[in-house]
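This protein record is not my work; I was only asked to verify it. Take the sequence as given and treat only the tokens as open to question. I have pasted the whole thing underneath without changing anything:
***
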Amino acid sequence: MSEKKRILIIDDEKSLCDVLKKGLELMGDFEVSIETSGKGGIRAAKWLKPDLILLDIHMPGMDGLEVLKRLKENNKDTIAIPVVMLTAVLDDSTKEGCARLYDEAYLEKPIGVTDLKAKIDEVLKRRGVN
């Protein structure tokens, strides 16, 4: 059996996080952690060193774009962690901003767990994480 992949969800919608966590873990090969704030998410990314981060954009305090920027700019602990944006924000300028900050994918909420797992698997495979 392969080692479980560590996923960090950074999203202030706790109920959605709980559903995604349960669904991904039931599929058998993920260990999911949740942070409901941007600052908490950055701290968790540094000490958990997840295989992948799912990140929302609209959060109180520090939004997802700022979190992505801090994860990717001059941060040796988190720069290589792939980040998948999972958000209801669909405007092109936001998508372009995320792409400039090296997000791996941009997914629209709501999303089914099966589709989310497929995208996570695709990103991890592309990054060489088995």
About this structure: Residues 5-116 form a domain with the Rossmann fold fold (CATH 3.40.50.2300). The two ends are 11 Å apart (CA to CA). The chain has one domain: 5-116. The longest strand covers residues 5-10.
